[in-house]
Amino acid sequence: MRKHVVILFCDIVGSTTLGEAADPEALRDRLARYFDAVSKAIWVQGGTVEKFIGDAVMAVFGVPSTREDDAARAVRAASGIHDAVAKLSRQFEQEIGVGLHVRIGVNAGEVFVTHQPDGQFSVTGDAVNTAQRLEAAAGTGETYVGDTVAELLRDEMVLDEVGEILHKGKTVPQQVFRVAADQDRVREEREPSFVGRVGELADLTALADRSAAREEGWLLTYVGDPGIGKSRLVREFTAGRGDGLRVVTGGADAMNAGAFAPLSSWLSSLDVDWEAYVEQLLGDESAAVLQRLRSAVGRSDAQTSVEDVVWAVQTLLAALCETSPVASVWDDLHWATEAQLDFIGRTAAASRGLPVLTICLARPELFDIDSRWGGGRKSRVEDVTPLDEEDLLAIAAERIALQTKEIDVTAEDLVTRADGNPQVVQLLAQSAAAGEGLPASVTQLYEAALDRLTADERSLVEVAAVYGRRFPLAPVAATAGIDEPAEAVARLRGRNVLEVAGDGDFRFAQAAFMQTAYRTMPKRTRITRHSALADWIREHQGGILGDPVALVASHRRRAYELLQEIDGPADERQLLQSSACEAAIELLRAQQLRGDPGMRDTMDRVLDLLPSGAPGHFEIAYAVVLARNSGATVERWQGWIDRLDAAMAQDEDWQVVRSVPRNIVGIRRGGLTLLEAREEASIMVDRLRRIGPVDVFAMELAAVYLSQVEADLGNLRACHEVCLERARAAADEDRPVQERVWLNFDLQITYSASTSLTEVVEDAARLQEVVAGQRGMWGTTTAVLAAALASSGRFEEARQQWALHEKAFDGVDRAETLYDLQHYQRTLAAEGRLADAADFASQLAHRANDATVVSYAASLHAAAARWALFAGALAATRTHVDNALTLELPDSFDWLRADAQAFTVAIENALDGDRAGAFEQIEIGSRMDRPEESLDAAGIVHTFTAIVEHLLGDETASRAAAAAAKDAFERKGAVALRDQVDTWVGNAEKLRAG
């Protein structure tokens, strides 16, 4: 049969060189990878690979079925081939030092199709030969198309005219076109000329020159009304740079509130396969960077934090800057959340030592979110003001001239209505060309533009507006009920409604148009479409840019809020509320798992959504307990507790555990004694067990409280049992967040208890990998691992772990490492650096006191006194004890005062010959760090006993106590401490000198 089809012909350039660089079998393997990649790019666009001819591939579009957009599909396949080959080329260069390059020809025409018995087919005809000739004429990395294909694509893609080519064996030349590499020119060619911003452009260019010359980063924020020219200014700037400026673009979206949501589009602008790109760019360093980036955009459950992700982005920017300056552009920041602005601001600050311009675009509403945005060193905020009349008249005249129909308006008419806004001028001209009168307002102008759309176009636009400014076509088309959306998209691009956003996505060229489309939809329609999009995203998570869990939660929440606004039926409200709650809690769990700072905002939203008395409040209460050190303000933390109390006032289980969030902090600040807290926690656990089946998080709350009190009382075995029980339960019930929390806590307990350091090191190394992306938990695990290694005598490995810790927390708020660093003094002591250990513990105590953690400060001063005693420095010891006793501790911490001075007073009593007084104080010092619970504590107590006996003159008893100390340290595996016992006891003579 005869058929009109589109032929694609692709061939390798320089295949001989490729063959010379490889073994024949290796070459066959690489060619197989090449054929697979090319075939996939063709199949994705609906084409069929007709044959392989040597190194060449021939494909057909239009068999068995013809489609109206076959030409566009073929050229998109060609672009996909070039992208895939570029990726393979980077791999080949690494493997054999030779890259891979192709050229492509695309032609359309009539062919004869022969169908084979096995279902295959072949095509013959002049169109096939011409496609091959076009390929041969193309340059490396180029796609040539014939005149027929060009005519079909003229309104859809940018083509550069090559001219007439007389192909071999032909008598008539063919008009040939090259597919432009920069398809964004589709948009630029429709834009008005760039006028009236010469000063702003000159300032931006001068600052870019300075940034590149001095290798310094700047944060620039351009603020103005929609359509005023912010984006156009930046496009004109980036297009005019001759220094190879690398532009990376991301943006905020009102429907995606995750802390790192803008990063998704930013990464995709780097490369379609940005993960492979980062791996290629960073080499060995890529693993750590990719782990954090994947977690940030929802591609991984590994835990992370703002600092982790900022470090990853800064590392990536530094690598990009090795070859050229970088413009890091963030659009639509008026839609950003506080957490998103915090992330972008920190990224800009981290890049101040690099030639990076961080350019932010926003409307004035940005400053309602953060009134201080854009301040500080190397920062500017610039207003983009309306154009003056002369500049606007020039644009208006140009727009009138470009209309296909003659219009009965003047440039002055357009300028009068435009209020200095060039985008409005363009829309006014289109309105006039459509035969409509000039609208009375900008709102009416956008509504009129919407009304001019066909039914398919409007449906597509409306669903896209529900999705967000940038959107993937598949879910939007599916929700709009459009099977073949390409033609509608092409028309919308032609009208400057949509533009290509990269990675297969599209974007509204004008945010105001999107908002008008959303606003003019009935709320009932919006509800249906938000729900449908959430369903689609949930079923097709792999094909979505950004975090699909966050997107589902946003659409579910918005559907419920809209239904509330129209006072929808109660049963439907209950259904949508339930769906919104489930989606929000699923998002919170994902954020907890990776340490996403956006979880604080999500907790607010979950509390907004949960109906009073809903069991989900227990899970939020547990999250509140974990969040007490997550950066939430005291006011916000207290607000969560108050809301929980109000919502669960009638719940029996809640009345049992309601005091946990407050009291777990109260025991550290003297609100109640540890014995009172232990009694309360034990009663909670017993009551919950008697009640019967209770919410799992109610039991988690009671268990967290009980385990913390047991640990503070020195009941390490009891705490260890609780940790193991709850970790197993969390694992059995697939609650990874809680499992990691319990394992991390248990590691700290086993390190202090009688578990061998060999086992502690093994457990810490395993856990370190599990929590590698979450800096807080990773920091604690690494600190314990380092101290355990040092006590085991593995000093170099311990130093390596502390170096990793220091690098991870470089530039971070010091409060985040306050508890980790208690283990550093132990490392110094294990190395025999007792004076350094005492000084470090004292300095850390002052930091703890400044942070109002007074009980922790007292414990650290006591530790400093112990190390000073072992060093024989009695005067320094007394100073450390005095520091502990002068702290403003509540009466409930009297035991801590006694503990802080116990060993020092024991030594002083021994020096005075008071045996009874000395051993009474040793017994006091053993009440919290109890020898029967901890081999480490046993070693310390036996050492002090040996020192006291030595000072009292009983050398036999002293040697026996020293031997007991060594035995305890030996059984623990703390050989570095064991080997110092004799030195510590020997330093007792220094104590006699005062």
From TrEMBL:
Keywords: ATP-binding, Nucleotide-binding
Boundaries of every Guanylate cyclase domain copy: 6-135
CDD domains per record: CHD
One Gene Ontology term from the biological process aspect of the record: intracellular signal transduction
SMART domains, per the entry: CYCc
UniProt-listed Pfam families: AAA_16 (PF13191), Guanylate_cyc (PF00211)
Any coiled-coil regions, as ranges: none
Membrane-spanning parts: none
Listed GO CC annotations: cytoplasm
Molecular function GO terms recorded: adenylate cyclase activity; ATP binding
InterPro entries associated with the record: A/G_cyclase, AAA_16, Nucleotide_cyclase
Protein name: Guanylate cyclase domain-containing protein
